[in-house]
Amino acid sequence: MKYARLTKEQFEELHKEFINFLATQSITAEEWANLKANKPELAEVELDVFSDLIWEGVLNQTRYLEHISPNDIHLFSLNEDNMHLIGIKVKEDVDLTTKEGFNWLRNNLMHDNVEFVQAKKDYSEDKNLDKFTLIQQGSNITKGELYEYMFKLIN
Q1: Who's near 136: CB < 8 A, 6+ residues apart?
Q2: Three-state SS for 84?
Q3: Which of 24, 67, 76, 112 has the most CB atoms around it within 10 Å of its CB?
Q4: pLDDT tens per residue across span 11-64
Q5: Beta strands in the chain (DSSP E)
Q6: Do the beta carbons of residue 57 and residue 132 sit within 8 Å?
Q7: Which of these three, 18, 41, 61, is where a domain ends?
Q8: Is residue 145 domain-shared with residue 74, that is, in the same domain?
Q9: 42 in a domain, yes or no?
Q10: Do the strands 114-122 and 82-90 form a parallel or antiparallel pair, or are they unpaired?
Q11: CA distances from 111 to 92, 114, 121, 124, 141 (A)
Q12: In the 3-class helix/strand/coil scheme, how is 52-66 assigned residue by residue?
């Protein structure tokens, strides 16, 4: 498996897609039940293959990621050939993961205790695995509003 297996909840949400996936493998509902009961290791392989297909589709469409921790924000724009990072570090006793902390940042963007950095990094041979690694490390997929706002602000 290249990425991570979907959760039970995700499989439930994608129930119809999973049925279609099994159909493309020429696996009927009866055969699936038999596979789970008698060859669980093969059923596991099918779950992993489906999970990777879903992740691949999601990652292909992902254009922005953000990771917010108590004192840092990392905003990623995932371009064709590289990723661009806007990093924000706060040297103040605030927690950016709270509404109050985020509001403090919004009202104090030009404060001396707020630092901005930018960086660009080329992808490895596997762009989607690079994106997935960031998600595994706590980044969330976004529409990029915060990235675009900060990009305009500092450029």
Answers
A1: 4
A2: strand
A3: 76
A4: 999 999 999 999 998 999 999 999 999 999 999 999 999 999 999 999 999 999
A5: 64-68, 72-78, 82-90, 114-122, 140-142
A6: no
A7: 61
A8: yes
A9: yes
A10: antiparallel
A11: 10, 6, 28, 36, 28
A12: HHHHHHHHHHCCEEE
pLDDT for res 39:
94
Among 45, 47, 20, 43, which Cα is nearest to 33's? 43
Calculate what percentage of the chain has a pLDDT beyond 90. Answer: 96
Confidence of residue 142 (pLDDT cuts 50, 70, 90): very high
Which residues, at least 6 apart from 90, have a Cβ–Cβ distance to it below 8 Å?
A: 71, 72, 96, 101, 105, 113, 114, 115
How much of the chain is helix, strand and coil, in % rounded to 5?
50, 20, 30
Place of tokens 């917010």: 68
Give me the domain span that covers residue 46: 8-61
In a domain, 2, yes or no: no
* Residue matched to tokens 């290791």: 41
- The span from the CA of 34 to the CA of 12, in Å, is 20
Give yes or no: residues 91 and 39 share one domain: no
51 and 117 part of one domain:
no
Residues 57 and 98 in one domain: no
- Per-residue pLDDT at 32: 94
